[in-house]
Design brief:
Blueprint lengths: L1 H11 L5 H12 L9 H12 L2 H15 L5 E6 L2 H15 L19 E3 L5 E2 L2 H6 L7 E7 L1
Length: 147
């Protein structure tokens, strides 16, 4: 729906301001149940894609986990579900040992866990923090320690 509306609008006249696009997105998507502008997610998606944020996050996590010294901790704050999924998956993968199929009677891969996940569930902002800083509503902190 969004893409069709953008193409149709561009056929009438070009977008000259981001507010024009935001207004169109609001009309197409609707307000929803939150006070967040409906254009927020679309602009976020465009920014994430153009800046290669998710690919760079994966590369950064791999590098950080590699360079972490034994006993060192890696703390990552993510601000949306796509980032959080990448962080959670990277930490869980580094914490996993043997990758041999369960049918193997003995481990032949020799893979040892790199880290121990400290935060099984992400740490999120409490009510007091949210009162002082409403933008912290989506922040999730995950921590792991090199073993």
């Amino acid at each position: 729906r969004i893409a069709k509306a953008i193409v149709a609008r561009r056929g009438e006249k070009p977008f000259t301001r981001t507010a024009d696009l935001a207004d169109l997105l609001g009309a197409v998507v609707g307000r929803g149940k939150h006070d967040i502008n409906p254009a927020t997610r679309s602009f976020q998606a465009i920014r994430i894609h153009i800046n290669r944020e998710l690919a760079d996050l994966e590369t950064g996590l791999d590098g950080a986990l590699e360079r972490l010294k034994v006993g060192g901790r890696l703390a990552v704050i993510s601000f949306h579900s796509l980032e959080d999924r990448i962080v959670k998956t990277a930490m869980a993968g580094a914490a996993k040992g043997c990758t041999c199929p369960p049918s193997f009677p003995v481990c032949v891969c020799g893979k040892k866990p790199q880290v121990q996940v400290i935060t099984r569930k992400p740490i999120v902002s409490g009510d007091e923090e949210l009162e002082r800083n409403p933008r912290a509503r989506s922040a999730k902190l995950r921590v792991c320690e090199k073993v």
